[in-house]
């Protein structure tokens, strides 16, 4: 990152607040006139772009000064400025500076009679400044801050600092309108293709502003909002045609394999399907339902509904030891699972009303007795009765560099984090884990992965949607699934796209102008541009993921540019272009490093992840039993997490580095979940948890690149070039 411009301390700029009498703490000391000329020349040619304090009163907040640290004790610092003025102040933070070092400082504030300074990062040492100014002098260039930054960037990346190299870097800075000299120097060193897009993207990566997830979230909301706004006016026929094209792009699928699980009881662990049969052994079931249970084709949604109805009617064969309170808990769990979009108070009220319908159970026999009083029909039961009517191969290449063990570790780690986070935000179930809990977990997972309407639309919003769709040729089966919340966002959008040509344009316009349709389209777009942990297991899906997104973004950009005009459309076109450029640059970056960012779709949130493979590809091919992987996550509740996975044959060492004590305690408490998951797969897993510090804080692409290019040879060479000058 560039050093900020150093302002002249004798500047009389407007809107600056002068430091008051508190500057009396500064004392001026003049150096003797017989100071050696050689010592003076060591500071390089005279410069006018560094501040020189002509008087203490000229210092203003925000000014940057440069000088030699004369004394340093705790946070008290004494600095000898370049005109030999002595400045005494307080240093903020704990910067890595020492007595005798020359550095730059920013005047932060003046308070309580003290001047507070902040050390400017990447400021030059005295030796560096001498070398930089000498290189500029030999190149015939003035020692301005801009020119010095260019030479510093070349030196840091072990590139030549001759006249041609300096001028070439400065020409690139001018051509691509950037002052980020270090980014340009790194790209030159790595021999990367340099153009406006790649410079912009690489600068974002180097400075930690590269996250694709934020762009996805913003763009996936902008597209539905645009369609909603257009539906507020204009010809309905033109809008219908535009909407059909837009939905075609949104529903584009290059593999037809990006669906989540199928949502049936076939996903139950071995033996639990028989447990379900035993649970329903006292419940009257149709032959069709019995056949679906046996062959595993019964949906999880229908299984939960059948259990709930049997529970309410008293026909459920309860497990041994289950109490009335346990039944209430399980009923609440089922209602909460089927109506995830509803607030907890609504679900609780619904459960309390439903409990009144459960026959009284004998405390000894646990058999149903007589109902004390007749309860009116439950609204939920009434609703249920109504319901019964290409180039992106870069990702594949990267994943091929990770052994199956490491991939299993990554997937198990993500699932573990989901469970750990859930325990911090969700009330633990008091009763024992039963088939009901398993079904609820499976349905919640399927609902999140497939965007069941019930996971983000309330029953009222689904009723509104059915009303908007009433003029379209919708099947009774889909209408029932929409009412129950089991229909997916993709099913609704596919229906709308396919029926637009034969539908009334006015009805389509009314649908597009509704908030409920905007929510469905936004949810689907964001979901289709994120990866679930299960999809990471399949190289083919990861491989096609970025190709699909890139294609869609190009089509969105083309549709917006050809069909719309105005500032908003220009902004959205740029957003689509920036996202597509981010993906294309990631492909370019992956050709140099084993790196990929992943927008993840976890159980309760979307999260950003950076995946790094530190083991060199050729070494990994020779010894596939060893791998060193870093997974960097940014989570809503746990914050930034670095997860180091070291794999040596069947030994897997996992280290979590987190930023606060509560998160550390949460991971430690649940670490056995991860260990057991990997141990069951035949691996010996060891989990360590540590607090992040200045050296082990949140990792970035910049740190990863430094690890790759700063070899021991170049580090030794750099130290040698500085030591010989000393």
List the helices and strands and how they pair.
Layout: E1 27-28, H1 37-41, E2 64-73, E3 76-81, E4 85-91, E5 102-111, E6 114-119, H2 126-138, H3 145-156, H4 163-175, H5 181-189, H6 196-206, H7 212-230, H8 236-250, H9 272-279, H10 287-295, H11 300-313, H12 324-338, H13 344-355, H14 379-387, H15 393-400, H16 404-425, H17 435-450, H18 459-469, H19 476-484, H20 489-499, H21 505-512, H22 515-528, H23 539-563, H24 567-592, E7 595-601, E8 606-613, H25 617-622, E9 626-635, E10 639-648, E11 651-658, H26 661-679, E12 684-691, H27 701-709, H28 712-725
Helix pairs in contact: 2-3, 3-4, 3-5, 6-24, 7-22, 7-24, 8-20, 8-21, 8-23, 11-12, 11-17, 12-13, 12-17, 14-19, 15-23, 16-26, 18-19, 20-22, 23-24
């Amino acid at each position: 990152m560039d050093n900020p411009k150093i302002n002249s301390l004798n500047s009389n700029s407007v809107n600056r607040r002068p430091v008051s009498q508190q500057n009396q703490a500064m004392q001026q000391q003049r150096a003797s006139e017989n100071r050696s000329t050689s010592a003076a020349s060591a500071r390089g040619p005279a410069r006018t772009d560094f501040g020189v304090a002509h008087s203490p009163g000229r210092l203003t907040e925000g000014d940057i000064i440069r000088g030699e640290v004369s004394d340093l004790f705790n946070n008290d610092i004494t600095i000898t400025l370049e005109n030999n003025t002595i400045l005494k102040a307080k240093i903020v933070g704990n910067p890595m500076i020492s007595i005798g070092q020359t550095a730059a400082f920013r005047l932060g504030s003046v308070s309580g009679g003290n001047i507070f300074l902040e050390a400017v990062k990447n400021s030059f040492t005295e030796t560096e400044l001498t070398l930089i100014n000498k290189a500029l002098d030999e190149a015939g260039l003035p020692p301005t801050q801009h020119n010095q930054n260019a030479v510093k960037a070349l030196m840091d990346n072990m590139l030549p600092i001759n006249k041609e190299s300096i001028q070439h870097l400065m020409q690139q800075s001018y051509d691509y309108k950037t002052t980020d000299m270090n980014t340009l120097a790194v790209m030159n060193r790595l021999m990367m293709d340099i153009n406006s897009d790649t410079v912009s993207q690489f600068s974002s990566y180097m400075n930690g502003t590269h996250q694709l997830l934020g762009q996805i979230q913003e763009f996936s909301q902008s597209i539905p909002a645009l369609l909603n706004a257009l539906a507020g006016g204009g010809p309905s026929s033109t809008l219908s045609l535009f909407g059909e094209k837009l939905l075609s792009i949104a529903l584009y699928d290059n593999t037809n394999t990006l669906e989540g699980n199928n949502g049936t009881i076939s996903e139950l662990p071995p033996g639990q399907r028989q447990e379900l049969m035993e649970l329903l052994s006292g419940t009257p079931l149709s032959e069709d339902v019995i056949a679906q249970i046996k062959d595993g084709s019964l949906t999880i949604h229908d299984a939960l509904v059948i259990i709930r109805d049997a529970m309410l009617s008293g026909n459920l064969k309860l497990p041994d030891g289950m109490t009335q309170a346990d039944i209430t808990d399980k009923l609440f769990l089922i209602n909460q699972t089927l109506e995830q979009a509803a607030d907890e108070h609504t679900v609780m009220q619904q459960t309390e009303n439903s409990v009144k319908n459960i026959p009284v159970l004998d405390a000894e026999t646990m058999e149903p007795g007589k109902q004390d009083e007749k309860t009116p029909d439950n609204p939920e039961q009434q609703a249920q009765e109504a319901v019964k009517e290409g180039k992106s191969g870069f990702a594949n290449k990267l994943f091929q560099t990770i052994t199956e063990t490491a991939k299993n570790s990554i997937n198990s780690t993500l699932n573990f984090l989901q469970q750990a986070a859930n325990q911090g935000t969700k009330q633990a179930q008091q009763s024992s884990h039963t088939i009901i809990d398993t079904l609820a977990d499976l349905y919640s997972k399927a609902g999140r992965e497939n965007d069941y309407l019930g996971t983000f639309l309330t029953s009222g919003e689904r009723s509104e949607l059915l009303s908007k769709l009433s003029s379209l040729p919708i099947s009774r089966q889909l209408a029932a699934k929409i009412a129950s919340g089991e229909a997916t966002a993709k099913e609704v959008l596919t229906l709308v796209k396919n029926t637009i040509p034969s539908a009334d344009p006015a009805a389509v316009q009314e649908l597009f102008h509704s908030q409920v349709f905007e929510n469905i389209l936004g949810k689907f777009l964001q979901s289709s541009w994120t990866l679930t942990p299960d999809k990471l297991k399949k190289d083919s899906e990861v491989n096609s993921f970025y190709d699909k997104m890139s294609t869609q973004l190009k089509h969105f950009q083309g549709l917006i540019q050809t069909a719309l005009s105005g500032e908003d459309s220009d902004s959205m076109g740029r957003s689509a272009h920036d996202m597509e450029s981010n993906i294309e640059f990631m492909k370019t970056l992956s050709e140099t490093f084993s790196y990929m960012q992943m927008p993840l779709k976890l159980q309760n949130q979307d999260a950003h992840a950076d995946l790094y493979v530190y083991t060199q590809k050729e070494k990994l091919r020779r010894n596939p039993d060893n791998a060193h992987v870093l997974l960097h996550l940014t989570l809503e509740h746990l914050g930034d997490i670095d997860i180091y996975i070291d794999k040596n044959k069947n030994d897997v060492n996992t280290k979590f580095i987190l930023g606060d004590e509560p998160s550390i305690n949460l991971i430690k408490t649940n670490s056995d979940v991860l260990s057991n998951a990997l141990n069951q797969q035949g691996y010996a897993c060891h989990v360590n948890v540590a607090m992040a510090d200045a050296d082990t804080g949140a990792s970035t692409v910049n740190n990863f690149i430094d690890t790759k290019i700063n070899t021991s040879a170049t580090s030794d060479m750099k130290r040698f070039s500085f030591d010989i000058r000393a």
